[in-house]
Amino acid sequence: MMDQNKLYLGVDIGSISTKAVAIDDKNTIWAKSYLWTEGNPIGAVKRVLQEIQNQLGGKNARVVAVGTTGSARELIGAILKATIVKNEITAHAIGTLSFHPEVRTILEIGGQDSKIIILDQGIIVDYAMNTLCAAGTGSFLSSQARRLNIPVEEFGNWALKSANPTKIAGRCTVFAESDLVHKAQMGHPTQDIIAGLCNSIVYNYLNNLAKGKTVKPPIVFQGGVSKNVGVARAFERIIGYPIIVDEIGHLMGCVGIAILARGQNLEQDFDFGVRNVNFVTAGVDCGGCPNNCEVICVLREKEFIDGWGNRCERGIERAKAKLKESGKMV
What we know:
Nucleotidyltransferase, domain 5, 3 domains, five-stranded mixed beta sheet
């Protein structure tokens, strides 16, 4: 029997979307998945695993290491027994460098947050994240698309039709929505309003995340919003440099964390059957001292597998005791 190709699974669990890729030693993608998280990261990861397994069916390959990144990386890392768990900044940088070794600036706008990463000779020298306000993100664009009754996927093409973009206040979602309605009532053409929204997203991003930072080319634009050609063109026009939008830009975090998992040299066959296991999470107030830590516990078939949020080891032990007392843990 031929030796099976070794693959490395990278999973990026965000608030809006959950993504995964399986790559080999040469960073070739064998399988990929992109699904909505829908407020249930565990359920989303199980569905992503199903898609990855289906795509690998019949191929001479096996997954030997797993890495997780994204906002739910600790939770999913515990469930999947991840080889490595890392933040999005590191994962996106590693993934992007694997395809664009000369990259100096990474612009990323996702469903509910955004980030900028500045690199020098392959080293992260500065970065910033915005997780507090959704203005200018994918969810912001989607809400405006519903208001205008135009599919968000068509926004980019509408923006490119505009010769005179409308000025839209984009620093706050509430102000942008009221301004959009006002401009529409004044009679501004739809394509100009959409082009104005694209511009406002770029100005909002540059005035917040990129403030005080030197944006140098090559520049790579990632995240779901990078698929909007109107926003990409607005970045090019306003920054004054070409913008690279990679076909798999929305999966770069997955690629990066898969590469990091491969680099750990800790191989162990991954069991896709984990998607059939019942996992639950429980928040427990320790109550052992004035800190009153809230300990988040992950249970597999009522057995404790991991926990965090405690400032000392007693927090975990007290959380376990309370879970056993309540019958949630054996």
